[in-house]
């Protein structure tokens, strides 16, 4: 069962993933970054979350970690992956709808 702390951590990681969606690329007020760049950033963040949970699990296996940290990291990774899958499903749905439009 997820604790409030693990849920808050998972929501915070999702906020980090989705926070870049409205920010302009380069930070200097330039043109907005491309959709491809946003997808790359989101996938990199999910990969980082997965590596964090792996390192927490290894630390626990070596007797140096804490079970709460492992569970929190795994929950954050699961939430991040679920968000990426949901976005993928929406993109596929939009593509299929566009393909059904008459020319």
Short description:
With 103 residues, the chain is mainly α.
Average pLDDT, to the nearest integer? 78
Q: Write down how many β-strands occur, each being a DSSP E stretch of 2 or more residues.
A: 0
The value of Rg in angstroms is: 17 Å
Q: Roughly how much helix do the residues carry, as a percent range?
A: over 70%
| pLDDT < 50 stretches | 24-29
Query: Mind describing the biggest β-sheet?
Result: none
Counting DSSP H or I runs of 4 or more residues, the number of helices is: 3
Give the N-to-C terminal Cα separation: 50 Å
% residues in beta strands? under 5%
Word description of this protein:
This protein has helices spanning 4-19, 35-61, 67-100. It is an all-alpha fold and 103 residues long. The chain is elongated and about 65 Å long.
Question: Which helices and strands appear, and what pairs or packs with what?
Answer:
Elements: H1 4-19, H2 35-61, H3 67-100
Helix pairs in contact: 1-2, 1-3, 2-3
Keywords:
mainly alpha, 3 helices, 0% strand, 75% helix, 103 residues
